[in-house]
Amino acid sequence: RWTPAKIAEETIERVRAQVGEDHVLLGLSGGVDSAVVAALLHQAIGEQLICVFVDNGLLRAGEADQVMATFARHMGVRVVKVDAEERFLARLAGVDDPEQKRKRIGNTFIEVFEQEAARHPEVRWLAQGTIYPDVIESAGARTGKAKVIKSHHNVGGLPERMQLKLLEPLRELFKDEVRKLGLELGLPADMVYRHPFPGPGLGVRILGEVHKDYADRLRLADAIFIEELRRAGLYDQVSQAFAVFLPVRSVGVVGDNRQYAHVIALRAVETIDFMTARWAELPYDFLAQVSHRIVNEVAGISRVVYDVTGKPPGTIEWE
Ligand code: XMP
């Protein structure tokens, strides 16, 4: 019978037999899958695991700190944090096409990751958080976007170029199994049940050209939205929720002053498989509270709108 404890035990044994005394490199993204791989490998091979966490400047509020606190401080995992915000923003300067932005972010990620890997010549394996649905997805014919998702998240092509063997301990598991395994391995529930976050991060939630001050404002607005969802007990009732930065300006009156400032859109969806989705019917008083807080607490935002588009015809992300 499948129990998380049994899966953990078996997988740990298998990993030990597979890698022996070798060193393993893992890119931590802040997402569930790579987090579970980190916890698993840490138990299996301890100091032989080296994690790399790239702060690309497009993460959610507090994300880098949370990853470092959970893995480095609490669990004692070896995590190297690379501060690459400036590099990513420089590579994104002047680029407004969504697919082009995805490509640049993906390529910069690989660059940074390879550079970091070069500092650890003892490494023989690259671990990835590939799960069973990823395996199926890349086997079938898929849209361009799905391939981009794969190639960024799971750094496709990298192991060959770096002459590393690939370690994918979650390959046979479904998402809910991965989550249960994560809890079994001692990961905090709020990390395990976190909404998905795209590899390109806020890069595709700032429409058009990415600027640092846009990212900072979006981070703040998004954090308010998520905090209020948690406070209202709504976070786990939606599948994914986030704020989007719209670089159009709208007139408003904030305090006693007329403002000509940017717009934040809120998006919350309910879905099983993320292939189709319904917009979440969040209570009006809840939306009013979030809107009120964002306009008052985030400088440069004068208006908040709620996205009432399903998928299809919309996508979940705005880019
Ligand atoms: P869409 O916008 O296509 O999103 O309806 C479906 C799910 O995929 C996520 N998503 C991405 N994830 N890289 C990722 O790793 C990407 O480029 C990407 N684009 C969308 C999105 O957040 C949603 O969960």
Automatic annotation (TrEMBL):
<comment type="subunit">
    <text>Homodimer.</text>
</comment>
<protein>
    <recommendedName>
        <fullName>GMP synthase [glutamine-hydrolyzing]</fullName>
        <ecNumber>6.3.5.2</ecNumber>
    </recommendedName>
</protein>
<dbReference type="GO" id="GO:0005829">
    <property type="term" value="C:cytosol"/>
</dbReference>
<keyword id="KW-0067">ATP-binding</keyword>
<dbReference type="GO" id="GO:0005524">
    <property type="term" value="F:ATP binding"/>
</dbReference>
<keyword id="KW-0436">Ligase</keyword>
<comment type="pathway">
    <text>Purine metabolism; GMP biosynthesis; GMP from XMP (L-Gln route): step 1/1.</text>
</comment>
<keyword id="KW-0547">Nucleotide-binding</keyword>
<comment type="function">
    <text>Catalyzes the synthesis of GMP from XMP.</text>
</comment>
<feature type="binding site">
    <location>
        <begin position="29"/>
        <end position="35"/>
    </location>
    <ligand>
        <name>ATP</name>
    </ligand>
</feature>
<keyword id="KW-0658">Purine biosynthesis</keyword>
<keyword id="KW-0315">Glutamine amidotransferase</keyword>
<keyword id="KW-0332">GMP biosynthesis</keyword>
<feature type="domain" description="GMPS ATP-PPase">
    <location>
        <begin position="2"/>
        <end position="194"/>
    </location>
</feature>
<dbReference type="GO" id="GO:0003921">
    <property type="term" value="F:GMP synthase activity"/>
</dbReference>
